[in-house]
## 1
Amino acid sequence: MLPRFIHSCDVSVVNYNVGKLIGECVASALREGVLHVIVVDSGSCAGSLVYQNEIRGYV
């Protein structure tokens, strides 16, 4: 029998004024089994930070 390997990866997302799409992006990564999602904000001013704060404890 072959050994079973568990593959894992981390995902980093660069965010700049994408609003609610950031939450959808993070949720999609988590559904695929990603262990860690790192969101890097590049100075958003279009409400993206509101969505990042909503998902902060979830990620």
## 2
Amino acid sequence: MEWIKVKIYSDKENLENLQSFLIDIGINGCTIEDSEDFLDFLESKTFNWDYIDENLMKLKDIKSSVTVYLSDNEQGNIHLSLIKSSYTEVETEIVSDQDWANNWKQYFKPIEIGDRLVIKPSWEEYDNKENRNVVILDPGNSFGTGTHETTRLCLMQSEKLVKKNDKILDAGCGSGILGISALVLGAKSCVFFDIDQSSIETTNVNTEANNVKNKSLVYCTDILKDEESFKLLIGQGPFNIVFVNIVPDVINAMMPLLTQATDKDGYLICSGIIKERENEVIDNMKRNGFSQITSLDLNGWVALTGRK
């Protein structure tokens, strides 16, 4: 099925009248773009922003508009005529009905990391001429495909540090990519946890796809709020390598707990850090007993590795 995408430009003061007009002619769903709303959101004291994508920042310069999607049929064209008769600045575009939930998969291809790893989407083929360690992945709705700098940096460190019989902790596991990669590289076991149930489900699917389910324990918990869950987690340790790829504020809050979870001479690998906050996390790692801290950076993102 095809749709008519209709974008109607208007002054901010008239957006409410425009919405009322659309409802009056029988159109109940719309998308509103307003630069002032974006600026209010950006300046809100409710959130602490580490990083804002440059494409998102362009929203502060947009002209106010309302977008609707009309069926490309007689009724849709009647609605379009009514809109054009009342508003002069109107853009239209024909768009096809698509499987938005799965279309992104066509852009996710096998990704080679370092000398030994390759992340292979579960629906893709890969000619493993170099005999790499293959991690089969379906990220679902969770973060962690290997394409983002933060994940790549962790995987590069994993390739260097993981040894046979290592115990791994994947804190905030997302798709499970970091812990599963460590298992594929030879680690003995991995404990995964995340606060998001969908990430837990995705990780379980991916551990099974990589035949490492028998080496994995997966928990849905927030260790900052649930002391009993944390005790259960560290009871599986101590861990030779702890991964945490989140954001600096959460990493810093979790640091004392991650320190407890890390074995003597073990490694803590922190990622999800923008360059501007690198020293802040380094100082926190030092305060919690980590030394020999090294930094890898890629396109403004940093991964820090410290030894306990």
## 3
Amino acid sequence: MPELRTRRRLDQPRLGRRRLDVDPEEFARLSERAARFLGTGRYLAIQTVLVVVWIALNLFAVSLRWDPYPFILLNLAFSTQAAYAAPLILLAQNRQDDRDRISLDEDRRRAERTKADTEYLARELAALRLAVGEVATRDYLRGELEKLAERIGAERADGSGRAADRVERGAGRGRGVNRPAGD
């Protein structure tokens, strides 16, 4: 079977077709800029001036009439503008919705993390309160020391001799810090 040239073979795609390579992200950014401009007062002022000049020239400048009274060409220009403006504005709104959705998802995740951190800190704080409740506080120790001081003062007042005897007897037994108990 004779070999067919590559251009005539139906089982292989043609090479050499050139396609318009448009970056969708770049096109979307461009459409957002256009949509932002279409929504400004500057655009409305420019369009109003152009329409007034268009109508004035077509009504009063008889030699320049390119669009007589029903202004069909002006109507066509407005229709074309609307046909392009509406999709551009919708594309810009869709991109803004996507950005808002991503932002809301990030906010939701951040709120969940904050809530989890807050709950963790609340549990830790409760555990610390329980632990501090079991620890002797300064006020508790101060109260106990005052009770002991009062008891010692009362014993001294009751029988100052008995307390002194006990102290002397304890020291006289030879049970000091450095001496063994058997001496």
